[in-house]
Amino acid sequence: MHKLRRAAQAWMQRAPRRQTLAPLEPILHASPWRVRLLGLTILLGHPVFGWIWSRWLVQPYENGWLRGLMALLGAVLMLPALGRNLSSERTQLLISLIIWIELPVFFSWMYLCNAGSAAWLASACVVTAFYYHLTEWRIATAGMVGGALLTGALFAWLMPADPHVGGTVDAVLILFSWSCSILLGLSSANLRREHLAHTLTTMGIMAHELRTPLSTAALIGDAIGLEVQRQPAHPRAAKLEQLGQRLHTLVRAMNHQIDTQIANAKLLQLPRHTEAVAAAALVQEVTAAYPYASSRQRECVQVVILADFVFQGSPTQFAQLLGNLIKNALHALTAADSSYPVGALRIEVDHGRTQGWIRVADNGIGIAPALLPHIFKPFFSSRRSTGHGLGLAFCQQVARSAGGSIQVKSEHAMGAVFMVVVPLALADH
Amino acid sequence: MSFPLYRRPGGVVFLDDDRDYLEMLGEVMPPDWLVRLYLRPVACIERLQQDIALREADAWAQQEIVNRWREGSLLIPQILHYWRHDQAARFSLVQVAVVDYAMPAMSGLRMLAELTRWPGARILLTGRADEQLAVSAFNRGLISQFIPKQSSDIRQRLTHAIEALRHHPDERHQHIWRATFSPRQHALLSQPLIAQALNGLAQAQRWIEHVCIGSPFGVLALNAQGGISWLQLELAENLNELAEMALSEGFGERTANEIRSGSQLIDMELQLALGAARPPEARQAFVIAGESEPLYAAIFPVAESFGSAQAASHAQFLDSHGERELPED
What we know:
A: 7 strands; B: 13 helices
């Protein structure tokens, strides 16, 4: 029994790595103009097609009120407030809902009401493909199933008298267009994923290429230092020595930056190596080696070991994770114009019965509540110009790879607390 | 730690395809090293292949000295002749090769694999991603050490690693000179306390090259300027005999007594070996404590005329050959 539990736990620890789910994208290629154009098309399309199907090429069923309602719903997409806030979860939900009603729900309703006329069969098929183009395949598939069920139920309830049920040819055609759409959706999702991987790899290669010139720069710093040692009596010796040191500090900082970039670039392909890591030693090592911008920054860091613990993970990745959190915290302190009092950045190590945690708390500028849901997404950054936005996505991936998680609590102007929670290493028998 | 029977400074070869990096490496390595820089693996391999032949000839020259000693020739004059005759060619032998792993034409490991016959020490410079490769190369004995190229203290790490390996005694030399010792002498030299004291002495006296021989028992050493010294070693039981010799050479009873007590030594055997150009002299002796018994020692200078002097000293050699030029691309 115990063995089984152990095996299950081990499987759970590795599970997150087996399937790294890409985040859902309710609106593909979201841009304000794209959404507005969609709204305009819907707003104009309904009256035009309403007229065509009821006056010119008359179809069995048409409903002016419904057309009006749909056009108005489409007009909502053109609201400027919506376009401004495309990344907010509520906006995305609203847009997804409108698209769902406009496409699968409306078109399957019209198809059913028109007793499967050729015009509406073709329209439904085309719209299926279009739906998969607008939203991600996972959401689209759920929307298609949901839309079909809803309209089917509505139709049975409101139009019980209608005897016609679409023939087998209709069903085959609809299924055919649907599966084609799913296929296209999948392939475009794959393309997006590949694109992301490619971008990250390029970043990694670039970072790597920078290393040798940087090492050369460090050696130049050494050479300057040696020159000074050879002529200690030179009047500018102290200044030269100082410049050499500056060069060294700069190189160290840049190397650290590159480490971060490379680690982040491995986001999608974290190596699977794990070993027992002692939390306190890890924290101490990382805080000691961190390239602080000033000694004040260095001194504001307070490490508190309430209780040390050991967990299974990759030491280099967790060192990188902590480095990322420290970097973010120091940035938040700088943004808050902090005077770096001791304890402005506080790192605590503690554990419970089954879990250990490392708490990184700062008194910095904090994170606006609206941004909180997004900070773990790849390429999201609250610092649009300086951050590349991969740091926290990487952190979360690393924590998950050890079967843990990262939790964040923050209020604007009240600082932030990041808590890395990992399961304690199972004692060996 | 043991006291090497033969030790000399060796050259260091750097191979890296990055011109700037290579140039800066040359710039920051200690000035008293012979440093050669290579941009291309082929040129470096060629140089080290030559090195194999040169080492072979050099080891053979040393072996010949011991062979002739067995036939009755004295060691000291032969060694002095060997140094004089060699001028400074032996200083250009390469002791350590530092090779970059990632090079376009050929990886550092493949390059080293082509040099299996070259006996010097190998250091691999690695990028961060190549560490696993380096560990396995180390385990297979292909390299003596690997150093991440981007480590922030690369200069210090490299300097320390090379310094340790640069003076690493050649096994073959140890083998050649061991033949000149009696088992008892060899056992004494193998004692950690004595070995440590002798190493300390070599450092304090700034000897850059030395050979330790059993007959007569002592160390013949060169400093960077080409000055030669003889460190005479005596066992306690031989002090009486040496005192008798001193008396017969005309030294007073007082000196003889001091020799008996181990506070003075005379360089009888050295002068004999040098052809009795001048009478023996007495010098202040000191004790090298061992685990079982002490050794008595005194340092005697050897007249310049016996050496190759200034012209072929290590310092002079570095002045004339020490330029760290980047090869033509």
